Amino acid sequence: MSTVTTPTELRLAKRMARLGTETAFETLAKARALEAQGKNIIHLEIGEPDFDTPANVIEAGIDAIHKGYTHYTPSAGLPALRQAVAEEVTKSRGVKVTSDEVVIVPGGKPTIYFTFTALVEEGDEVIFPSPGYPIYESLANFTGAKSVPLQLREENDFRLDPNELADLITDRTKLIVLNSPHNPTGGVLTEQDIKDIAAAIGDRDIMVLSDEIYSRLIFEGSHHSLMSQPGWKDRVIMLDGWSKSYAMTGWRLGYGVMRKELAEHFGRLMTNVNSCSAGFTQMAGMEAIKGDQSAVDHMREQFHARRDKFIAGLNKIPGFSCRLPRGAFYAFPNIKETGLESRKLAEALLNEAGVACLSGTAFGKYGEGYLRFSIANSMENLATALSRIESWAKKNL
Ligand code: PLP
């Protein structure tokens, strides 16, 4: 019998070099290391609600475990949950959706991954918002597509400009990613924006991934989806889920809505990757959408009040100026007047002021000149963070 004494070289597939990441998790690790040295850090880096999952949802999850929802379910989800989501989306988006057009997946991210895997080929072009959620660019590169960032401009309240979108579309454009309410800027597309985007794409053979995971977190106006536009439902993959609206990030539950033939392929991807989402999690998700919604309303009101306080406070700090985000739970201040690069400023705030936030560049090249703060933290912690940043700025700028 021979024993291996030298480690073999790890020969990764080339595509792994093209896979990006989310720096929020890296910053969290750095902040935790500082805490382990005894430093006090206010965590405004990670994008998750600080509220507990609503009690009725927790109860439904526990009850489902007791009732034996601890086995495989169909890959695309429990039929009753697919039906409940179809009814919810029919109501909220104003377009008829059936249960075979819904795929239940573990979180928001799988719908992004499956969309790229199922539709995008090497050499295709993918247009996505920049600054934007980093997973879009990561997966565009991973699948060998050409990344085509569409700059979101502060002067336009970080809503994409349909004319600029039209200029980026070519014969090779395969997929366009929309995200409203938007991470990291809090920009929200209006109904007119959606109509103009539909006109800009026209009848070209292009699919749209519409990431609407913050759809219930809007402070002004209402949510609008491209899938609601007449004739568009079959060209849109709509992503939504429980993570952000119901404070269920760790439960891992989300859904994609798409035409039936694509949903069948998503089901096959689910069989290959996850087998299914956890059954008891799905039962908790059912209670979340069908049960009492007062916890969601309460969280939205709290985020609204925090937003008003935090943005007002940021705008008093020398070198910072911040537009009012209309949805989601992030502040994305312009810090160009500080004269510092975003990365350097984010590092200094973490190491010297005890406030963890993200550099705008974590969201692509057009994020330079900005920082992202998650306001999913208590009013008290947000106030402390503001006074720490203000003292730091007065001393160092
Ligand atoms: N889409 C956007 C725009 C997000 O901000 C996030 C999470 O931060 C996701 C998708 C992924 O959600 P999940 O954590 O449920 O996978």
- Percentage of residues in strands: 5-15%
Relevant CATH superfamily of the largest domain: Type I PLP-dependent aspartate aminotransferase-like (Major domain)
Helix content: 25-40%
> Which CATH class of the largest domain is shown?
Alpha Beta
> Helix- and strand-based class?
alpha/beta
Using the coordinates shown, work out and report the CATH topology of the largest domain: Aspartate Aminotransferase, domain 2
Helix and strand string, N-terminal first? HEHHEHEHEHEHEEEHHHEHEEEH
CATH architecture of the largest domain: 3-Layer(aba) Sandwich
- Total helix count? 12
Shape: globular
User: Order of strands across the biggest sheet?
Assistant: 2-8-7-6-5-3-4
Overall pLDDT score: 96
- Ligand inventory: pyridoxal-5'-phosphate
What is the C-alpha radius of gyration, as a whole number of Å? 22 Å
Give a verbal description of the structure.
The protein is an alpha/beta fold. It has two domains: 16-46 and 295-396, Alpha-Beta Complex (Aspartate Aminotransferase, domain 1); 56-290, Aspartate Aminotransferase, domain 2. The chain has twelve helices and twelve strands. It has helices spanning 23-36, 55-66, 79-93, 109-119, 134-142, 162-168, 191-201, 260-273, 279-290, 294-314, 342-353, 379-396, and strands at residues 42-43, 102-105, 125-130, 146-151, 173-179, 207-211, 236-241, 254-257, 330-331, 355-356, 358-359, 371-374. The strands form three sheets. A seven-stranded mixed sheet has the order 2-8-7-6-5-3-4, with helices on both faces. Helix 7 (191-201) links the parallel strand 5 (173-179) and strand 6 (207-211). Helix 3 (79-93) packs parallel to helix 9 (279-290) and helix 6 (162-168) runs parallel beside helix 7. The longest helix has 21 residues, at 294-314. The protein is globular and about 60 Å long. The structure holds pyridoxal-5'-phosphate. Pyridoxal-5'-phosphate binds at residues 47, 107-109, 133, 179, 183, 211, 213, 241, 243, 249, 254.
